[in-house]
Amino acid sequence: MTATVFPPAPTVLAAVDGREARFPVRRIFCVGRNYAAHRAEMGGDDREPPFFFTKPADALVLSGSAIAYARATSDLHHEVELVIAIGTGGADIPVAEALAHVFGYAVGVDLTRRDLQAAAKGKGQPWDSAKGFDQSAPLGAIVERRGSDLKGAIRLDVNDATRQASQISNMIWSVPEIIAECSRLWCLAPGDLIFTGTPEGVGALVPGDRVRAAIDGLPELTFTLA
Ligand code: MN
């Protein structure tokens, strides 16, 4: 084994529903502005197609965790999203073949430092500090659904009040289109996660909030803000 100058960080592991075995996470890709009603609430141009940004794999937080209110922000927002777990890699995957690359699906929340994002947008700067910070990717257990699509209702409640409620079918890019588009820009690999964008109703979280995120057919994602 190759010597290292300090111990390497452990592989980030996501939970797989009903299985002892975990899902080793490689990269986290995210789609921006994939629901028209959210694009509108963010003041986006309605002709602008969705796009990608990334989070580091170690931003992942398992369901049931207490998450510290993020540093360097006073406007931490929730964004509930369907997450695709990739089981088979590839580049330039045709839309018609995209579902064959799916391992399964999970509920995720793309936590966002909205104040830093607004500042970055204003200066034409990248979004990394607004999106890719520590503990910014809470993720529920992945349900194994190899080769299949997923549709249904998507919802996020804060302290038992519903903040976001929509349907996966409202996505601008469908699951197969997201996989195909992502694989045009990166060679996808087993372990990659793709957050597919949030519906309307994003808003601020405060310390003490209890968050419950749900998608039909998937285990709920819950976390509290410490
Ligand atoms: Mn998002």
Gap between N and C termini, in Å? 40 Å
Average pLDDT taken over every residue: 97
Number of helices: 4
What amount of the residues lies in strands?
25-35%
Number of strands: 18
Rg calc: 17 Å
Task: List all distinct small molecules, including ions and cofactors, that are bound in this structure.
Answer: manganese (II) ion
CATH architecture: Alpha-Beta Complex
Level of helix content? 10-25%
Corresponding CATH superfamily: Fumarylacetoacetase-like, C-terminal domain
Total separate domains: 1
The CATH topology assignment is Fumarylacetoacetate hydrolase, domain 2
Class from secondary-structure proportions: alpha+beta
Poorly predicted parts: none
Listing every helix as H and every strand as E from the N terminus to the C terminus, the arrangement reads EEEHEEEEEEEHHEEEEHEEEE
Biggest β-sheet description:
6 strands, mixed
Q: What kind of assembly state do the chains in view correspond to?
A: single chain
Q: What is the level 1 CATH name?
A: Alpha Beta
- For the biggest β-sheet, the strand order reads 4-3-15-8-9-12
Morphology call: globular
Structure characterization notes:
The termini are far apart. The chain has one domain: Fumarylacetoacetate hydrolase, domain 2 (Alpha-Beta Complex), CATH 3.90.850.10. Strand 1 and strand 2 form a beta hairpin. By secondary structure, it is of the alpha+beta class. The strands form five sheets. Strands 4-3-15-8-9-12 form a six-stranded mixed beta sheet, with helices on one face. A five-stranded mixed beta sheet has the order 6-18-17-13-14, with no helix packed on it. A three-stranded antiparallel beta sheet has the order 10-7-16. The protein contains four helices and 18 strands. The structure holds manganese (II) ion. The site of manganese (II) ion (MN) has 7 residues, from loops.
